[in-house]
Design a protein that fits this description.
It contains seven helices and twelve strands. With 254 residues, it is α/β, with parallel strands linked by helices. Bound molecules: S-adenosylmethionine (SAM).
Length: 254
């Protein structure tokens, strides 16, 4: 029995163990892939913004590849981890605390990325549209916006009533994932036990699932046009059976 039970805002307490929980993610591969998408669309960005950068793993990897990168995230705790990782490596990456729905005062960038389901955290098409409009303010005239989504197939296949327990250095956690088709929402509940404080923390993450058609509709209503859509980490067009889809958007000529 733990000393205290707390319910925390998503990512605020997961932040310190996020890199452990996501250790299966190959950010080297992801960085290579996203740079290949930019090249495919003739984008040679001099400055890249990694939006919803989390603990900065992708931003760090892009910096290693010579990219002038900056990061932004809505969760201070996630960003603190990113800042500390960059400091230890002596990488001069600026990180900004920003909500996807308000990107005021960010430097203009030729490429903006928003990856690893981050856009799924916006719970309505209206919010996604607002985020796209905000990105439009940041990206330069011939710039590119690369955004991915986790698909319904992904939620059904891998997050339908899935439970796992993991233990790391000084913590353990139970992760329960479930998908409510009627709501179109994927849930990830983390119950984390921190040994030093003997504290049990619960975080409930909610991700809205968007179909390809929904994203196409949002893009059509936005100041962007879709110039590419790719299933998984490949270059073929996506289908509803793709686990993940990367979209490449460019500013519409007005
Ligand atoms: C699954 S994590 C992905 C993090 C990072 N892109 C990665 O690849 O590891 C989702 C991230 O989105 C951020 N996020 C969710 N909603 C947000 C919002 N409205 N504004 C800014 N960041 C948000 C969270 O704080 C979290 O860092």
């Amino acid at each position: 029995m733990s000393n205290s039970n707390t319910t925390a805002t998503p990512y605020t307490r997961l932040a310190t163990i996020y890199d452990y929980a996501m250790r299966h993610v190959d950010y080297v591969h992801w960085a290579r892939y996203v740079l290949s998408l930019l090249a495919r669309h003739h984008a040679v960005p001099s400055r890249v913004l990694d939006l919803a950068c989390g603990t900065g793993s992708l931003a760090l990897e892009l910096h290693r590849r010579g990219v002038d990168v900056l990061g932004a995230d809505g969760c201070k705790e996630m960003m603190s981890v990113a800042v500390e990782k960059a400091r230890k490596l002596n990488y001069p990456i600026p990180f900004y605390h920003r909500n996807l729905l308000n990107l005021d005062d960010l430097p203009a960038c030729d490429a903006v990325l928003c990856l690893y389901d981050s856009i799924n955290y916006l719970m309505s098409p209206e919010m996604v549209l607002q985020a796209f409009e905000e990105v439009h303010r940041v990206v330069t005239r011939n710039g590119v916006f690369v955004v991915d989504i986790c698909t319904e197939n992904n939620s059904r296949q891998y997050f339908s009533n899935m439970q796992s327990t993991e233990a790391g250095d000084g913590f353990s956690y139970l992760r329960h994932s479930y998908y409510k088709k009627r709501e179109g929402v994927q849930y990830n509940k983390f119950e984390i036990h921190f040994e030093d404080t003997d504290e049990m923390v619960t975080e409930l993450h909610q991700q809205r699932v968007y179909s390809l058609a929904m994203i196409e509709k949002i893009v059509a209503a936005s100041p962007f046009e879709m110039v590419g859509a790719y299933g998984g980490f490949g270059y073929a067009p996506p289908t509803e059976l793709s686990d993940r889809v990367h979209f490449v958007l460019k500013k519409r000529n007005t």
